[in-house]
Amino acid sequence: MNTAVCVDVGSTYTKAALIDVGDGRLIRRAEVPTTTGGDVLTGLDQAVEAVGGGDRLYVCSSAGGGLRLAVVGYEELVTAEAGHRVGLSAGARVVHVAAGPLDGRAVTALRESRPDVILLVGGTDGGDGEVLLHNAGRLATSRLRVPVVVAGNADVRDEAAARLTGRDVPVTVTGNVLPRIGVLDPGPARAAIREVFLRHVIGGKRLSKGPRFASLVRAATPDAVLAGVELLADVTGAGVLVVDVGGATTDVYSALIPDAESEWGPRRDVAGTLWRSRTVEGDLGVAVGADGTRAAAVAEKLALRESGHLAGDRELAAAAATIALRRHARGHSTGPGQPRTGGRDLRDVRLVVGSGGVLRHGGGAYVLDAVLTDHSGGWAAPATARTVVDERYVLAAAGLLAIDHRDAAVTLVNSL
């Protein structure tokens, strides 16, 4: 039998799935506590042993808080916003966004956000390069020594990189995230962020004593899940929406079918249209994030019923999912009176997938019904969508397998 074990090393649990890559069949799955207090390899090896081992091993990880990304851009509503969207799509938690020429106060705020990686963007190709060069110089002379991905104006990005490497800052140069106004090109930067995550971040978090864990990890978990969501949309030819409610955060993924009017017509966004997108809400969860969910529910005027423990978890999960979907669809504003950007039109979504412990353990129908009947949140919910819970946690596994074993990955996502 030709098999692979796909493992997601999470902050709380490590989940393993044994897959027959010949026919895409899920043979066995297991969960064990993530051993972050010692060496994460201990829990990983236990999970692999629990499913019986396999011929190959594919690993993604969000242990240690996942990937913390800061974006430094040129203009708040254009290149900085484009970088923000690309960072989220790369599986990162965007912890800081700065726009315009960095000064001392801005550098201090950037440092206090404790990023693992900085995405430095700015200017369309052939446009103004002064801000990109200025910001590269400020980063080079700051006390920050985290890796920088330079994905700005092609005319000056090599010079910007040289200013950083001259001060021994690790640099990766890649294609511009916004080569032209309204044209968002996430692929090169997303790949570069993934590579930096694997090369610098995993080992730097000291999750394991030796190099083996870093050598095994192929992606940040959200990046693997988004790859699975993208594959599902490609296979079905329909819009897909996924909401993953965790203990600390709630992630939303959407893969939409490109619309010619949105791409070129009056609805076109100057920061570009990202048809495959993810947002992460760090204040929404059902465990350590429960207080944030309650506070956000008050702000959104959502009523929470406090009854038995299980009902309470379901209520929190429903509120977290609803608020996260509202934010994902409405986009965000940089301040009072400022326009919202980055919003998603989800009306044509045909499949809504729920994920997370509460949903997999009996709360899925309750949570997804709350999401699809939310008619007062400032967004239009999908009208004719089928709902399903990813009870076997196949999206991350499919995303890990998609490159080497696409047929098996297709079978997995079709099993939802």
Structural notes for this entry:
Helix 5 links the parallel strand 8 (148-150) and strand 9. The chain is built from 14 helices and 17 strands. It has three domains: 3-63, Nucleotidyltransferase, domain 5 (2-Layer Sandwich); 65-199, Cobalamin-binding domain (Rossmann fold), CATH 3.40.50; 220-414. The protein has a five-stranded mixed beta sheet with strand order 3-2-1-4-10. It has a five-stranded parallel beta sheet with strand order 6-5-7-8-9, with helices on both faces. It has helices at residues 40-50, 79-89, 104-112, 130-141, 157-165, 187-204, 212-216, 221-236, 260-264, 290-299, 309-330, 357-372, 394-401, 406-414, and strands at residues 3-9, 13-20, 25-33, 56-61, 68-73, 93-99, 117-120, 148-150, 171-173, 217-220, 239-245, 250-255, 276-281, 332-333, 340-341, 349-355, 386-389. It is an alpha/beta fold.
Write a concise synopsis of the structure shown:
With 416 residues, the chain is α/β, with parallel strands linked by helices. Helix content is 39%, strand content 22%. It folds into three domains: 3-63, 2-Layer Sandwich (Nucleotidyltransferase, domain 5); 65-199, Rossmann fold (3-Layer(aba) Sandwich); 220-414.
Q: Helix fraction?
A: 25-40%
Percent of sequence in beta strands? 15-25%
Number of strands: 17
Q: What's the average pLDDT? A: 86
Shape: globular
List the helices and strands and how they pair.
Layout lengths: L2 E7 L3 E8 L4 E9 L6 H11 L5 E6 L6 E6 L5 H11 L3 E7 L4 H9 L4 E4 L9 H12 L6 E3 L6 H9 L5 E3 L13 H18 L7 H5 E4 H16 L2 E7 L4 E6 L4 H5 L11 E6 L8 H10 L9 H22 L1 E2 L6 E2 L7 E7 L1 H16 L13 E4 L4 H8 L4 H9 L2
Parallel strand pairs: 1-4, 4-10, 5-6, 5-7, 7-8, 8-9, 11-16, 16-17
Antiparallel strand pairs: 1-2, 2-3, 11-12, 12-13, 14-15
Helix pairs in contact: 4-5, 8-13, 8-14, 10-11, 11-12, 13-14
